[in-house]
Amino acid sequence: MPVDHNGLLSLLPTVFVITTAVLTHRPVAALLTGVVIGILLLDPTTAVNTFSEIMLEVMQDETIGWVIMVCGLMGSLIYILIKTGGASAFARKMAQHANTRNKSMLVTWFLGMVLFIDDYLNAIAIGNSMKKVTDKFKVSRAMLSYVVDSTAAPTCVLVPISTWAVFFAAVLETTGAAAVGDGMKMYIAGIPFMFYPIIALLLVPLVATGRFPLIGHMRAAEELAQQGIPAMEPVDQIEVVDGPVDDNGQPRSSIWVFLVPLLALIGFSWYFDIDLLRGIIATLAVTIPLVVMMKLLGAYEALDAVLDGFKIMIPPLAIVVVAFMFKTVNDQLGLPQYVIESVQPLMSPLFFPVIVFLTMALVSFATGSSWGVFAIAIPIVMPLGTAMDVPTALTIGALLSASSFGSHACFYGDATVLSAQSSGVSVMEHALTQLPYALIAAAAASVAYVGYGLFVL
């Protein structure tokens, strides 16, 4: 039976938010206004009560609490690694290998694929560690953030030992799409059909090394970078410094001060069943005493660094929190259900994969939700695919491709915001320079799904 929704009106807040954010470059203000418009559509007589209830609901939500603590503590860890000079030592080492512009871009791309365990870890660590190298070769911060973001979610989706794989395997089981214990097996079967992340990941080195043309805002950003202006808009960021020096004035820190904590983070997260929060807590518990014993930071300096790093993450976290509020309003308006029901009559075995991909990509982009919305979609989409004799693996591939696009393209999505923050560029500059390439990858993925439907199904 169809779920209640507000019909075409449910699209109004999203259209307003996207238009306003592009025109004003103020994503928080645009999102808040979108929340208010959505609440007024729900019931204008209880607008204040509804706003406060949604705010409290979001702040009490376990997921948003997890996001705040993970991102804040990741900021603390990166700030410690920067204050000790570990990040600078890593950048110096990378500069030995990345001794040309193209090599610096390819190294950034490669590192993004190596840190596959979580897109937050990927986005925050790579941007902060590589911007000193890419600045040397006059690479725009917009290009750096594009490379970082385009290897974050796409890589995590394609590797079955990541937070993405664990989450979606669990969703497949809890929604009944997969039997208990078979969620990960079903997820892995869908990886070859995740056309969007595969194409987006392969497009990165072509764009970054100039083998694919610069488009629109990206061309303008690169031209400014050649003039010594790395970003169009200045933003608060963590500046990479050399840290303590020895008697000869040489930095005392080494690349291992950077690598050991990151390896510990991966190891601890793996030990705690791919839980990045427990992993970052354990890593900080080891890293802080270590840098104090090495006399790279004093005890009070280390604790101050924890707080300062957390504070640096507050602006991007503000966008994420308001985006969660916006998602909640869209859920109450019935936006996901409305879009799915609207395209359901158009579905056929031939076009089912591409319609699923495009529809859910639109929903994920509009709501800023690359995870939560799919708990709603999977119980609806999976039975439809089964009824049409569409292979389950193909349906999963289309769904995860859409999720990856939403994370990659939405300008108020968490990974997009964190990639911009770590790379030292404004969220809107990053979003506008990246969007054309995300759309190109989405178009290519759509062609791939249609082609598969024509020649294989």
Key features of this structure:
23 helices; 457 residues; mainly alpha
Protein model, in words:
There is one protein chain. The protein is mainly alpha-helical. The chain has 23 helices and no strands. The protein is globular, with a radius of gyration of 22 Å. It starts with 11 loop residues before the first helix and ends with a helix. 52% of the residues are buried. The model has no long low-confidence stretch (mean pLDDT 86).
Topology:
Elements: H1 12-24, H2 27-42, H3 47-60, H4 62-83, H5 86-97, H6 101-114, H7 119-136, H8 141-150, H9 153-158, H10 163-174, H11 183-190, H12 195-208, H13 217-226, H14 255-271, H15 276-293, H16 299-312, H17 314-333, H18 335-343, H19 352-367, H20 372-387, H21 392-409, H22 414-423, H23 427-455
Helix pairs in contact: 1-2, 2-17, 3-17, 4-7, 4-15, 4-16, 4-17, 5-7, 5-14, 6-7, 7-8, 7-22, 8-12, 8-22, 8-23, 10-11, 11-21, 12-23, 13-23, 14-15, 17-22, 18-19, 19-20, 19-21, 19-23, 20-21, 21-23, 22-23
Question: What is the H/E string?
Answer: HHHHHHHHHHHHHHHHHHHHHHH
Span between termini: 29 Å
Q: Helicity level, as a percent range? A: over 70%
Number of helices: 23
Strand content: under 5%
Which segments are poorly predicted (pLDDT under 50) over 5 or more consecutive residues? none
Largest sheet: none
Structural class: mainly alpha
Radius of gyration: 22 Å
Count of DSSP strands: 0
Shape: globular
Mean pLDDT equals 86
